[in-house]
Specification:
The structure holds two protein chains of two kinds. Chain A has strands at 5-7, 10-13, 19-24, 31-37, 43-50, 53-56, 65-68, 75-79, 88-95, 106-107, 111-115. By secondary structure, chain A is mainly β. Chain B has no helices and eleven strands.
Amino acid sequence: NAGVMQNPRHLVRRRGQEARLRCSPMKGHSHVYWYRQLPEEGLKFMVYLQKENIIDESGMPKERFSAEFPKEGPSILRIQQVVRGDSAAYFCASSPPGQAINGELFFGEGSRLTVL
Amino acid sequence: DQQVKQNSPSLSVQEGRISILNCDYTNSMFDYFLWYKKYPAEGPTFLISISSIKDKNEDGRFTVFLNKSAKHLSLHIVPSQPGDSAVYFCAATRTSYGKLTFGQGTILTVHP
């Protein structure tokens, strides 16, 4: 039973390029979350998605960042025109549909973005 | 605005002794609190949680205590084992879904 799968695990981009991070939730899970961890900090909520819907994007920067979870395929976190401050670990988490889960999430191993 | 704070960046404990990790919060709207454990190069894994209507929850070697009046929670690990060495994150939520506010983390080292 595979867990939450994220790829790539490591991504290096130059300033101004685009970064795409992918996340496949656990089997049977239809809710996906993206969190970002800057160096020496805790994880910060970015966005909560269900299939084809963005439920809560209150933690997403207003510009350059977007997220989607299409009907088929993985969830994608897209960062356009990356800057050095985007360097961080990006974690995806998933949860099953239906009941309230009160924050008990299953996290992937993260994608580490380095912007040169 | 750091709504969840873990003021101890690190803690060192001898194997077999008790580890106590602390966490403070400022938002009285939080109604559910969780602890996550994280090893290097891995994602966080859920450890234990507590609802705001309780003051204690126990699961094996792990116990979480909640003091609402002080806006403080703690995680007790007894007895501590070397495999417990990891970063521990305190988190809180006021939603029914996975929108969590995390603390900065505490690095626990358990010495054999």
